[in-house]
Amino acid sequence: MSQVTLYRGEVKRIALAGGIGAGKSTVVDYLRSEGHVAIDADEVYRQLTALGQPLLDALVDAFGAAALSADGELDRSYLASIVFTDPAALRQLNAITHGPIGLEIRRQLDASTGDVGFVAIPLFRAEHRAQLALDEMWSVQVTPEVALDRLVAQRAMTPDSARARIAAQASNVEREQLADEVLWNNTDRESLFARVDELLRERGFDDH
Fold it and tell me: What pLDDT band is residue 166 in, cutting at 50, 70 and 90?
């Protein structure tokens, strides 16, 4: 891939996309360990749906009190069991959550300092580039077979549940069409980190 040298501002903004089980969180953790700003959309979602947050109330209004656990917090497992088997429910969830999450991510990016800021976005869409003033998108990818094995072995999902989660997301081909770079993660972490380091060096972001 050719090096990207034109950016919108002083802090370069790079999105990390990838389906469930691809390894976005692993890349986020690695980037943070190297001293880079790395925002995780899943973490933002958890923050915005915490007790007392307006987004939690909106989800309860949409999906009922069953969306709450016994202690009043969002029951993410229950919600996932609904939306990943019902496309209409998934669209409803996305319509409620995408706006507030996007605004909070943009706020955090705007407040960030340093040479580069990363943001992990599971459901990356073309419009995210303008909404978040992104310079690039790197797609972290695995084959569906590897993703399935990881979800069953590491997250204790049933094979049917894992397949439903994978099927509800964009395909690798669809992500590649939106990506500036692809990071394959079918093998070990060392290979993944080596690829991240390679891209950081190309862009002059390896001085941490």
Answer: confident
The pLDDT tens digits of the residues spanning 26-81 come to: 999 999 999 999 999 999 999 999 999 999 999 999 999 999 999 999 999 899 88
8 Å CB contact between 133 and 15:
no
Q: Tell me what pLDDT residue 89 has.
A: 94
Tell me, yes or no, whether 208 lies in a domain: no
Q: Among 188, 187, 184, 141, which residue's Cα sits nearest to residue 166? A: 141
Name the residue among 37, 40, 35 with its Cα closest to residue 25. Answer: 40
The CB-side HSE value for 149 (13 A sphere, CA atoms) comes to: 7
Instruction: Return the ∠ at Cα 90 (arms to 85 and 91), rounded to 5°.
Output: 140
The pTM is what?
Answer: 0.85
Q: Dig out the tokens for 105 from the structure.
A: 């991510």
Any domain includes 5: no
Mean pLDDT across 2-12: 55
Asked whether the beta carbons of 180 and 137 are under 8 A apart, the reply is: yes
| 2 lies in some domain | no
Name every residue whose Cβ is closer than 8 Å to that of residue 30 and which is 6 or more positions away in sequence: 192, 193, 196
- CATH classification at residue 20: 3.40.50.300
Number of domains in the chain: 1
> Residue 25's domain spans which residues?
12-200
